[in-house]
Amino acid sequence: MSLEKFNCKPRRPVSFRLCNVSGYTTEVMEILSQDPSLHVLFVPGNPGIISFYKDFLEALYEFLGETASVTAIGHISQTEKNWERGKLFLLQEQIDHKVDFVRQQLLKDDLPIVLVGHSIGAYMSMETLKRYPEKVIYCAGLYPYLMFNPLSKTQILYKKVFRLPVLCFLLSFCIASLGLLPKCATRLLVSKSVGKSWSATAIDATCSHLLRYHTFRNMLFLALGEFTELSGPLDWAFMRENKGKFAFLFGVDDHWGSLEMYEEISKQVPEISLSIERQGLIHNFCCTEAGSLWIARQVASFIKNIRQ
Fold it and tell me: E strands along 172-211, which residues?
């Protein structure tokens, strides 16, 4: 089905719920199939605001022919309300959160699990696979951020900035100040600045979630943890042992999921499934409807291949 025809087809909307995962209030979006053959768990990037991925999740469910349940789990304290009262969470804590969600919510049924992760969510998904190698049958990484890239001037700059607590506080405070404006003014400001080409879904998610002090501060804190913890080598032995369970999609001009990372993985794990998106999309593909639909179709093709 072409994307043009698909775009005209009515889609089943996601449902939203809050759940308690190991004591943390967690935002979840999902579409449950009436007769699922597997369960797809999506882990977002940073920020881990699942509202950004609404169009993607709905499209993925449809591209899979409504035969799989699709669930997305947000990151701790990157939520609309300040449930955790400003506490900051490390990368490992966010990983443990995803592992606990699988244990509490998905192990109770007999469905195999497919993990799909975007950016740092790909790394979180890989770590979750390590904990449940028998339950998780596949792991797809979209524009994966798996290792710190010392060749990226952008990453080096971000690392220097995020190591300054006072600057992070000021940035978060300024962003949160914008969120205090009337909703119509905030929406207009976002749509005329960073969100000129964004979908209504992405603009709504920015206004409702990202322009919050606790969310933005946790986003910066998580990013600092990424730079620190991803400075070492990947677990190449694990990836070689499970190469048939992995698929990674990289972008042509993406400093997070860089082509240097693509080359390194292809060298270390020659038979792993790797592909490059050449449609001119951006790392935050979920901010445009075209990007959400194209990536959803690609992920669906990954999953359909393992069913054959």
Answer: none
